[in-house]
Amino acid sequence: LKQEALLQLEQADGSQQLNELRVKYLGKKGPLTEILRGMGSLSAEERPIIGQVANEVRTAIEEVIERKQEQFRKEETDKRLRQETIDITLPGRKQPAGAVHPLSKVIEEIEDIFLGMGYTVEEGPEVETDYYNFEALNFPKNHPARDMQDSFYVTDEILMRTHTSPVQVRTMERMKGDVPVKIICPGKVYRHDDDDATHSHVFTQIEGLVIDRHIRMSDLKGTLLQFVQEMFGKDTKIRLRPSFFPFTEPSAEVDVSCMMCRGEGCRTCKQTGWLEILGSGMVHPRVLEMAGYDPREYSGFAFGMGVERIAMLKYGIDDIRHFYTNDLRFLQQFVRV
Ligand code: PHE
């Protein structure tokens, strides 16, 4: 029995076969178990002798199984390792990396400039109430901007904000008459416009607001000059033209010297040498008052710019729709800017 078992075991060529043999010789129905079970019918002298022989046989078989098993395990690992070898000379596959959207880059750049001047960044809701979008900003009840034609209304009293100026009011209310207020607010705004190369029904504005004692128009002018020189280059000039907004008085439209032709006159600036980039003014006393600031003690300035327009001028982009159609050929040009 022992010889037969050992011979078969030595010839086994896989763990499965080995297992089958284990069951065959050592299992419950195997010959050894049978012999041990039959021990009861043996005489007292025979019992230890047969028992010893049976145990020897069992131990011998177990040892061979153990050894073979170890051998198979090693062979199988070797085989797997050989199959899984990595060819380190193969060139890798390139993973396409994402990049920051050009518009986000320009927003970050503008934020950085104002953070450097001590401003903080505020945000506000895109779905606004009539009160914050118009009323608290001194828009008269019959102002055309309030018309369905110009604004996206959700209900009579709720609309998609048409500018970032409501964040001015929300910030002032939160500050409860405290100064200084010195914030910029980037965000999306919505207008009922037909989309074309220079108009989009959704676009991005950055609003600025400063309130303190003794804030003057010269502070506004100096701040904006510093900003455009960091944004467009050291010799950029600005020009303020009288304008009108219900929430500022006086109000000014701000032009920068054309960075395309350096003031010589070109198509971008329609031969004028100047480009309009933002609206601004001194915060209207009624706006201050409604938000809890005494206009006899405090004054402030505000400005608002369209980020797409700034980005288009800075990078020579000819169509605002490029920012939203996500054509990779457009976007990839900005990966390393
Ligand atoms: N809110 C104005 C607009 O959307 C821009 C502006 C902001 C003007 C702040 C003056 C002061 O056109």
Automatic annotation (TrEMBL):
Keywords in alphabetical order, please.
Answer: Aminoacyl-tRNA synthetase, ATP-binding, Cytoplasm, Ligase, Magnesium, Metal-binding, Nucleotide-binding, Protein biosynthesis
EC number(s) per entry:
6.1.1.20
Q: Which InterPro entries match?
A: aa-tRNA-synth_II, aa-tRNA-synth_II/BPL/LPL, Phe-tRNA-synth_IIc_asu, Phe-tRNA_ligase_II_N, Phe_tRNA_ligase_alpha1_bac, Phenylalanyl-tRNA_Synthase, tRNA-bd_arm
Query: Aminoacyl-transfer RNA synthetases class-II family profile domain spans which residues?
Result: 104-313
Catalysed reactions, semicolon-separated: tRNA(Phe) + L-phenylalanine + ATP = L-phenylalanyl-tRNA(Phe) + AMP + diphosphate + H(+)
Q: What is its EC class?
A: ligase
For this UniProt entry, the molecular function terms from Gene Ontology, in alphabetical order, are: phenylalanine-tRNA ligase activity
Q: Does the keyword Aminoacyl-tRNA synthetase apply?
A: yes
The subunit structure is:
Tetramer of two alpha and two beta subunits.
- Its name, as the record gives it, is Phenylalanine--tRNA ligase alpha subunit
Specify whether Ligase is a keyword of the entry. yes
Q: What cofactor(s) does the depicted protein rely on?
A: Mg(2+)
The note describing how and how many cofactors are bound reads:
Binds 2 magnesium ions per tetramer.
| Domain of life per record | Bacteria
Question: Where does the record place it?
Answer: Cytoplasm
Sites where the protein binds Mg(2+): E249
Family per record: Belongs to the class-II aminoacyl-tRNA synthetase family. Phe-tRNA synthetase alpha subunit type 1 subfamily.
